[in-house]
Amino acid sequence: MRKLLVFSLLAALLVTALMLPPLTGATKSGKATRGTAASVNDAKRQEAGASKSIAEPVSYRAVNFGESAPIREIAAAEAKKAVSGNKKGIDHEEYIEQKREQNPVKKGGVQPRGIDGDDGEKNRTNREAIRHVDPFAKGSPDGALAYVPGGKGRDGRAITPQVLPTPNVSFEGISEADTVALGQGFLPPDTNGEIGPNHFVLTVNVTLRIYDRTGAPLVNLATIGSLFATIPGSCANTNDGDPIVLYDQLADRWIISQFCTVANPNNHQLIAVSKTPDPTGAYYLYDFMMPNNDFNDYPHFGMWPDAYYMTDNEFNQAGTSFLGAGAFAFNRAKLLAGDPTANFIYFDSNAGCPAACQFGGMLPADMDGFIPPPAGTPNTFMQFDDDQAGGAADQLRIFDFHADFATPANSTFTERTGSPLAVATFDSREVPSGSRAVVPQPAGGVNLDFIASLIATSATMSRLP
Fold first, then answer.
1. Among candidates 426, 306, 399, which has minimal Cα distance to 8?
2. In contact, 341 and 333? CB cutoff 8 Å
3. Of the residues 149, 223, 273, 341, which has the fewest C-beta atoms closer than 10 A?
4. Per-residue model confidence as pLDDT tens digits over 48-60
5. Which helix (H) or strand (E) holds 323?
């Protein structure tokens, strides 16, 4: 469900929160901790609040916790199970639709639609509109490159394409054909990867593989679900997708995440945190139930000293109605420590939804380098507005997320002074409208597919001073 990792970001509101009671019976010593009476009550509270707007921070703990075997052992076992005769990838679009049909829908909600696609797309919700694009709006040239169409730069000289430098290392990663033996082979492939001091971790479809920095594979190909096979609950060993890989350079740890579309009553976000700097080793496993009955699509993460921040695009369970964006802060200290009581803080920005949602396609900042910002610095969230796609103007909206895990009610999500920030003109619409594979490549290569509402944000942010 993703194409490229790109960077844009969010907004919202604040006030009071709910802090959950300690997770009864959850101990770090146990290999797996199932959600107990306390977490069952938490789920009921989440269910009760699912149909109303959340205008204040809320906080919930993981409903399940476990510990994995080393990935190198999991991957070796997966390789033995792969069926060489499996020549065709499964239609994961059908798989996701069937799971949605089993999910509860709120009173007055829209029942899940039937299967209407045969392109093998795993999560067509990524293609659902989160912005009201006007196909008849007059286009605007890219103001960062040219004043008018015609290829003239700001200095009046002709614009020549910039050529990317030759990579230091180039190697074949996971191919669609590689994933088919493990029941994968989806469109889009959801390629995602992260580099560390000694490793490169790659996910494609719902498989993962770990390489050294020369490109030599260190483990066999494995499903992401197999990493979560030992976690209690209905999300164990699921392969629902939207994978994310994150490297925490301050702690020298790895994070691998995917969503789980089992709604009991709400969907889940699964997060694995490596126990050591070695990504081929064992992981702490966390199962977080989402704070409402929305489908938590397109999750993306950013590492910050106090938390792992996440955004999602939220839909009804049928995937037919966009319901705004969610902003999350996961308790980094507890996740790294293997603490089963790890919690998240959440803001919901569904004002005006579904008719005129203000927020969507946003992402948190992800820290680079080893010099952290001053203690207490909030994480920055951004998203763009486009006047051809329902926005007031071509601009960025910038928000600060301050997470207080000791007293979640003190957490804030506020729009920064100076936001919205005007940027050079751009037009985020793809041409032709609704098309795919439209980004041309050199030497007659296959055009790239992309999501217009995100590629514009990435390009706009790259031009900020």
1. 399
2. no
3. 149
4. 444 333 368 999 9
5. strand 322-331
In the block, which residue shows the tokens 């490549």? 441
pLDDT at 142 over 50: yes
C-alpha separations of 169 from 165, 166, 198, 233, 364 in Å: 12, 9, 13, 41, 29
- Give the burial class of 223: count Cβ atoms within 10 A of its Cβ; 0-12 exposed, 13-18 middle, 19 or more buried: buried
Helix (H, G, I), strand (E, B) or coil at 434: coil
Q: Both tokens of residue 311?
A: 């955004």
Q: For 187-204, write each residue's pLDDT tens digit.
A: 678 889 999 999 999 999
- Two structure tokens written together for 37: 């009476």
Run of H or E residues at 310: strand 307-315
- b or e along 126-162 (b: 16 or more beta carbons within 10 Å of the residue's beta carbon)? bebebbebeeeeeebbbeeebeeeeeeeeeeeeeeee
pTM for the complete prediction? 0.79
CA terminus-to-terminus distance, the chain:
31
Burial class of residue 462, CB neighbours in 10 A (0-12, 13-18, 19+): exposed
Please name the residues in contact with 297: beta carbons below 8 A apart, sequence gap of 6 or more.
1, 123, 125, 126, 242, 259, 312, 313, 314, 315, 319
Q: How far apart are CA 243 and CA 282, in angstroms?
A: 18
Phi (first) and psi of residue 406, to 5 degrees: -70, -40
Give the span between the Cα atoms of 422 and 419, in whole angstroms.
8
pLDDT digits (tens, 9 = 90+) for 430-441: 766 667 777 777
Helices (H) and strands (E) in the chain — how many of each?
7, 20
- pLDDT one-digit tens code per residue, 93-122: 455 555 555 555 443 332 222 222 334 556
CA atoms within 13 A on the CB side of 454: 22
